[in-house]
Amino acid sequence: MASIFLKPGKEEALLRYHPWVFSGAIQSADGHPEEGDTVEVYSSAGQLLGVGHAQVGSIAVRMLSFEAAKIDADFWKQKLQNAYDLRAKTVFSDATTCYRLVHGEADGLPGLVVDIYGSTAVLQAHSVGMYLARRELAQALRSVYGGGLKAVYDKSAATTPFKADLSATDEYLWGERPVEPVLENGLQFEVDWEGGQKTGFFLDQRDNRSLFERYSRGRSVLNMFCYTGGFSAYALRGGAAHVCSVDSSARAVEQANRNVALNFGSQAAHEAHVADGFDFLQSAGGKYDLIALDPPAFAKHMGAVKNALQAYRRLNALALRQAPKGSIIFTFSCSQVVSREQFCSAVFSAALDSKRSVRLLHRLAQPPDHPVNIYHPEGEYLKGLALYVA
Asked: What is the Cα–Cα distance from 340 to 348, expressed in whole angstroms?
C-alpha cells in the first residue's frame, strides 16, 4: 500500500475527521499510487492519520478510515451493516420499501451511493476507488441483506470520473430486475433505475412530500419539474381538488401518469404536460394555489453559482407573481455548491421582485436516510422553503 505524506500543519483537517485530503496539502508520496488505489495518509511527523482512496483532482484522497484499516470484505460488510442499522432506526417501516442505504461521506463511504428499491440495491460510484470495489460491495450487500435482496444494479456509467477512462457500463452485478412497485409512506411507485435520472427516484424528498400532502386538501396543485410524480401522488392522497404535473421530459411525464394511475386509477383529478418549466409558469394564469418547485441542480460546480442564483431568483419570482392570495409554495435547491444562505437570499430577492407579502412556514431539508456528517457539512445539499403568499 502506498503512503501519502502531508505538509506541516495540513493534518489539522483530518484530525477534525474531515474526509477529504486536498492536493495542495500533500508533501510527497512513497510509492506511485494510481487513481483508485488504497493509500495510507501520514502527517509530516509520520503520524498515521488513516486510509483512503487516491484520486486525481483537487480532492486527492477520500478517507475511508481515520485509523489503520485493512480494506477487505469484512471492512465493506461492517460499513454497510452500520449504514443498515441507522436506517433501521430511522426509516424502516412496512409502508416504505425504498430508501437510501449509503450516503457517501455521511456513512464513511465517500464516493458511494446505494439506494434500495424493494429487493433491489442500486449502486452508484462517484470515485474510481468505489467503482473498482463495486463487486466486493455487491457481495457485502448480499451478506447484509441475505434473502431480502434479489438484485444489485451498478449505475455508475454517468458518475465515475470521465478522465479516468474506465469505460464503465451500467449492469446487474448480481441477480436480475424483479418486477415490483415500491412503497413510500404507503403510496406505490414504479421506479426505472435502469433508464431514469440518478438512481431512478428522488428519495430525498420523502419527508417534504409528506408535508406537502398536509397542505393539499381542496387546493389546485402545480408540481413543476415533476419527474415521476412524487409530489403529485401525495397531493392527490391529501385531497387536492386538481393536480397538474409538468416536466420537460416526455419519459418522466409518462412515468408520472403511470404512478398516479397506479394509486388512484385513470380517472384521477390529474393532468400532465411536457413543457419548459419557466415557460409554463409564465402562462400559468394564477390557477394554482399550492406549488412545488423542485428543479434539477442549476449549479454543479462553483463557477456556475452566480448563474444558478439568478435562475432560482427568476423561477421563484415567476411563481410568486402567479400565485393567488393564500397560496403556498414549496421551493427547493439541490445544488450542493449553493449554500442554504445563498438560496434563501435568492428567494428573498424573488419576493421583492414580485412585490408580494410572503411568510416563511418551514425550512426544508433532506431526510434521515440522507444524513449529514457533522464533520463534513458539504453533505447538506438539499435546501427548501415552504412559503405562504398573502
From this structure: 12
155 touches 124 (CB < 8 A):
yes
What does the block give as the cell for 112?
Answer: 458511494
Which residues, listed in sequence order, are joined to residue 48 by a DSSP beta bridge?
42
pLDDT of residue 162: 83
* C-alpha span between 209 and 201 (Å, rounded): 13
Whether domain 2-65 has CATH 2.30.130.10: the reply is yes
Q: What is the rounded distance in angstroms from the CA atom of residue 182 to the CA atom of residue 152?
A: 16
Task: Decide if 2 contacts 22 (C-beta within 8 A).
Answer: no
- Cα–Cα distance between 390 and 382 in angstroms, integer? 26
* Run means of pLDDT, 10 residues per run, the chain, 390 residues: 96 97 96 95 97 96 98 98 97 97 98 97 97 98 96 96 89 92 97 92 97 98 97 98 97 96 97 95 92 91 90 96 96 94 97 97 98 95 97
* Same fold yes or no, 73-182 and 202-389: no
Domain coordinates in residue numbering, the chain: 2-65, 73-182, 202-389
Please list the active-site residues.
Answer: 334
Which CA distances in Å does 50 have to 33, 38, 199? 16, 11, 31
Residue 353, all three cell numbers: 421582485
Q: Distance (Å, rounded) from C-alpha 317 to C-alpha 312?
A: 8
pLDDT at 342: 96
Nine-digit cell string for 215: 397542505
Residues ≥6 apart with Cβ < 8 Å to 328: 215, 219, 289, 290, 291, 361, 386, 387, 388, 389
Architecture of domain 73-182: 2-Layer Sandwich (3.30)
The CATH code for residues 202-389 is 3.40.50.150
Residue whose C-alpha cell is 464516493: 111
